[in-house]
Each structure stands twice: as C-alpha cells, then as structure tokens.
Amino acid sequence: MYLNNQPYLHTKNDRMNCSVHSDYHQMSEFAANEILSVLAANPKATLCLATGDTPLLTYQLLVEKIIRQKIKISQIHFVGLDEWVGVPHTNPGSCHYFLHKNIFTPLNVNLKNIHLFDALSANLADECKKMNELIDRLQGIDLMLVGIGRNGHIGFNEPGDAENNFAHISQLDPLTIEVGQKYFTETIHLQKGLTLGLAHFYAARKVMMMANGIKKKEIVKKTLEYPISTQVPATLIRKHQNAILIIDKDASGQE
Ligand code: PGA
C-alpha cells in the first residue's frame, strides 16, 4: 500500500502541500527524491539543508542515490542554515560536523561550494553579513530544507523573532537549549546561534519542511492550525508560495 514512495495522504492546506507517509523511511525516501528533482532541474542549484535528527535518513538516501545514479553535483552550492555559537567545528554536535559527515565528505563536495557559518568568529555580525552577501551573489536559495523544533522554530528563528530578518545572531529559546543537548555527548552551554532568517525562508524558491514521530505531533498540529504568526514560526510555511510539509503518520496525529 505504501510502496513506490506513494504518499499515504497528500493534501493542500492554503497554498501549501502536505505529504503524509506511513513511516520515517517512506518520508525520507520521498524527501530524497524531491531533492533529486531539484538537482535534475537545476545542476547549479543552491541548497540550504538543515541538520538534526529529522533529515538524517533523507541525506543518507540522497547520498546513496547520487552515487548510484552518478549524478553530477560539482556546480551545486551548499549554504548553512544555522550553527551553535561557540561550538567548534570539530565537535560532533555542531551543524558543521553533521553536514560534513553526512553529506559533504561522502559526496566529496568541493570546499569552495560549501558555505557555513563560523560560529567561533570574533565578529559574529560580520559572519551574518558575509552570509547575506554570499546568498545574494548566488542569486538566492533554490531549495531550503528545514525541520521543525518542538517550539516551532525554523533554524534558530525562535518564537516571536522578527519575520523580516536575514542572517542574524539568535538568542536561543529555553526549549531549544534544553532539546539541543541531545546532539552533544557532553553537557554544553548553549545560549546563542547564528541562523539564516525568515526573510531567507520566504525568498527560497522551494521549501521542504519535515517532521516525524509522536514527539512532533503537537507542533505539527499547531503548524497546520494555529494562526500564522512568528509565535509559531513553522506556521509561516502556510504563506510560502512553493512549500511542502513532509511528515510521517505519527507526526500527523492520524490513527
Ligand atoms: P530535530 O530538530 O530534527 O533534531 O528534531 C529539528 C529542529 O530543531 O529544527
């Protein structure tokens, strides 16, 4: 019944597509194929791929497919979504480490095509400025893939943050700090992040937002039903012109 990546349910909510899959594996297959179709349509695309538990299998499947199908990605550019301020790249909990381990190293991506925040920089404002200029030079983001934080954050755009921000320094929400510990083996002091802003999210030519598991059921419901506002940043997906919410049955709340 769920073979061939057929979504369990595909609905339209406002302008937004919602694709519900039987389980985490099926949604990850679907998401990997969506990314592949962006690469096929534009071999010079700029991708912004979130880190975190949610997209991990998507990236593993994507890497497998790119290698197996011998897809050329030499002109693809990758820009970072976010990073924990003060966490070195060598820390396995950093976004930098995650992306290199799961995407850039297995695909042998040229370093000149990788553009991540340096969250150890002495001048974080300048890091943000450089990232904004770079995205402009790349003529915007073709595909932005994001997860949903349990508080509804997108990247480190936390509840109540401004809607017109580009890259900026974010004061992390207490729930982000608490949940963020899961990425680290040691207890770590998290307080700030660097993140692309919601203005980048709106401007991305395609957005994929993903969530899986029972623990995301509550926030997925809010994403779909709460008033569209930065109080729950994920609700803003409903204003995006070309977005798809990809979830599994557990996160959807369906029986
Ligand atoms: P997760 O994080 O994929 O690890 O659940 C999602 C997020 O915080 O955006």
Give the CA-CA distance, first to last residue.
Answer: 16 Å
Order of helices and strands: EEHEHEEHEHEEHEHEHEH
Kindly provide the name of the CATH class: Alpha Beta
Shape: globular
Task: Determine the mean pLDDT.
Answer: 94
- Which cofactors or ions or other ligands sit in this model? 2-phosphoglycolic acid
Query: Using only CA atoms, what is the Rg?
Result: 17 Å
Helix content: 25-40%
Number of domains: 1
What labels describe this entry?
globular, alpha/beta, three-stranded antiparallel β-sheet, binds 2-phosphoglycolic acid
Q: What would you note in describing this structure?
A:
The protein has 255 residues and is α/β, with parallel strands linked by helices. The protein has a single domain (2-252), classed as 3-Layer(aba) Sandwich (Rossmann fold). It is 33% helix and 18% strand. The protein is built from 8 helices and 11 strands. The strands form 2 sheets. Strands 1-2-11-10-7-3-4-6 form an 8-stranded mixed sheet, sandwiched between helices. Strands 5-9-8 form a 3-stranded antiparallel sheet, covered by helices on one side. A hairpin with a 2-residue loop joins strand 1 (9-13) and strand 2 (16-21). 2-phosphoglycolic acid (PGA) binds next to loops. 2-phosphoglycolic acid binds at residues 52-54, 147-149.
